[in-house]
Amino acid sequence: MATDKVVESVMVGSYEEMETEGKQKSVKSKLSSFFWHGGSVYDAWFSCASNQVAQVLLTLPYSFSQLGMLSGILFQLFYGLLGSWTAYLISVLYVEYRTRKEREKVDFRNHVIQWFEVLDGLLGKHWRNVGLGFNCTFLLFGSVIQLIACASNIYYINDNLDKRTWTYIFGACCATTVFIPSFHNYRIWSFIGLVMTTYTAWYLSIAAVLHGQVEGVKHSGPTKLVLYFTGATNILYTFGGHAVTVEIMHAMWKPQKFKAIYLLATLYVLTLTLPSASAMYWAFGDMLLDHSNAFALLPRTRFRDMAVILMLIHQACFITFGFACTPLYFVWEKAIGMHECKSLCKRAAARLPVVVPIWFLAIIFPFFGPINSAVGSLLVSFTVYIIPALAHMFTFKSAAARENAVEQPPRFVGRWVGSYTINIFVVVWVLLVGFGFGGWASMTNFIRQIDTFGLFTKCYQCPPQSMVPPPPQFHSPVNATVAAPPLHHLPQNHTHRA
């Protein structure tokens, strides 16, 4: 029986190799395969690493100012480990589901398996409905956050337009992701995306060190519980990017090899997030409490402009926005019966309605930074941590299910007893700290942003126009004014800290 399990597990996801076996490839098909059609473990690693951290790089220094240096570092390590564990659980459940279906001769060549379908096949329709609701809502707001980040970033290069206008423009740019068929086609974009985030992270680290500490810098955090748990839930959100784990696995030729990919991706991401957030907090301290975008505090140079442009490309041009939105496209295609359509243009046209609510929500709630914490506490806590842990426990609750499982828990965690212990800890911790305290803190902070700036605010945390001196009057020497100071030296609208 053990041998049969191994054979069936190996056969999972081998369609691509079976289809191309024995066929001669033309130069065009080889180029297409090299740049476009990926399914290796390396593609999966690039996808996980580039998707896990993008605009969050710019908000983690803000979280450090709320948490303090020590708590910021510890929470990153802790939630990175927790996120890797639940990503492993999702991969186990995917392989279990797909193996069972393929034993029944179900063919997935033209169908992308998604998380809610895994829950449906293993645990029933009630789990499916809960998983579908949380996952789609999280991915919806995840896409909204990327769009908000685009407008926030471009403003630091060109402030001739307000952030709301930039949101309109980048909403149209992000809509081009409808032409990406599936996660098979993110090979080159995932690689480029990781190069972009790596540059940005090390730019933040080096620029902060070279800038040095600002005069009178203070490192007060943590000062209040609201700020502390708001910062913690932003880090919870940072390492909760595996809401698209199932889709990434399905794009692999051999998805059973996914196991440790997310952990390795997380370890690499930590080499980016820890130095950049620590250096920025060391240099600017409490000033970050009023600047949720780290770019706002660094002087404008060609290196900063390059980092801004790379982040814009990463977020708007297929990569981060596409990763968050493509699973929503699949759900919508299945709902309207277009998922197995061969025409790329028809599928792209059918996907466009998904972009409209994302566009609209980004205009309503442009609160860059605080929205990350709200999404993290209310949605990521269940989608990425609680539901996978519970689903794993309920799927293998019977002795027969554990005995016949396609993949047994690793020995170093204590097999089934150890995995159940870890799962219970994950559920209790995230429910109390992430959803409970984190939900209270992040929503309190989020509501205060609404009270301070209002919905549909035109330019969130932009320098107030009243601070810009009027143009000089030439008819009288008395009325002459000096030139306006550089934009980054002007005071910014302050958010409430308590």
Automatic annotation (TrEMBL):
<feature type="domain" description="Amino acid transporter transmembrane">
    <location>
        <begin position="37"/>
        <end position="430"/>
    </location>
</feature>
<feature type="transmembrane region" description="Helical">
    <location>
        <begin position="132"/>
        <end position="154"/>
    </location>
</feature>
<dbReference type="InterPro" id="IPR013057">
    <property type="entry name" value="AA_transpt_TM"/>
</dbReference>
<feature type="transmembrane region" description="Helical">
    <location>
        <begin position="375"/>
        <end position="396"/>
    </location>
</feature>
<keyword id="KW-0812">Transmembrane</keyword>
<keyword id="KW-0813">Transport</keyword>
<feature type="transmembrane region" description="Helical">
    <location>
        <begin position="261"/>
        <end position="284"/>
    </location>
</feature>
<comment type="function">
    <text>Carrier protein involved in proton-driven auxin influx. Mediates the formation of auxin gradient from developing leaves (site of auxin biosynthesis) to tips by contributing to the loading of auxin in vascular tissues and facilitating acropetal (base to tip) auxin transport within inner tissues of the root apex, and basipetal (tip to base) auxin transport within outer tissues of the root apex. May be involved in lateral roots and nodules formation.</text>
</comment>
<protein>
    <submittedName>
        <fullName>Auxin influx carrier family protein</fullName>
    </submittedName>
</protein>
<keyword id="KW-0472">Membrane</keyword>
<feature type="transmembrane region" description="Helical">
    <location>
        <begin position="417"/>
        <end position="440"/>
    </location>
</feature>
<comment type="similarity">
    <text>Belongs to the amino acid/polyamine transporter 2 family. Amino acid/auxin permease (AAAP) (TC 2.A.18.1) subfamily.</text>
</comment>
<dbReference type="GO" id="GO:0006865">
    <property type="term" value="P:amino acid transport"/>
</dbReference>
<feature type="transmembrane region" description="Helical">
    <location>
        <begin position="73"/>
        <end position="95"/>
    </location>
</feature>
<dbReference type="GO" id="GO:0012505">
    <property type="term" value="C:endomembrane system"/>
</dbReference>
<keyword id="KW-0029">Amino-acid transport</keyword>
<dbReference type="GO" id="GO:0015293">
    <property type="term" value="F:symporter activity"/>
</dbReference>
<feature type="transmembrane region" description="Helical">
    <location>
        <begin position="166"/>
        <end position="184"/>
    </location>
</feature>
<feature type="transmembrane region" description="Helical">
    <location>
        <begin position="191"/>
        <end position="214"/>
    </location>
</feature>
<feature type="transmembrane region" description="Helical">
    <location>
        <begin position="226"/>
        <end position="249"/>
    </location>
</feature>
<keyword id="KW-0769">Symport</keyword>
<dbReference type="Pfam" id="PF01490">
    <property type="entry name" value="Aa_trans"/>
</dbReference>
<dbReference type="GO" id="GO:0009734">
    <property type="term" value="P:auxin-activated signaling pathway"/>
</dbReference>
<feature type="transmembrane region" description="Helical">
    <location>
        <begin position="307"/>
        <end position="332"/>
    </location>
</feature>
<keyword id="KW-0927">Auxin signaling pathway</keyword>
<feature type="transmembrane region" description="Helical">
    <location>
        <begin position="352"/>
        <end position="369"/>
    </location>
</feature>
<keyword id="KW-1133">Transmembrane helix</keyword>
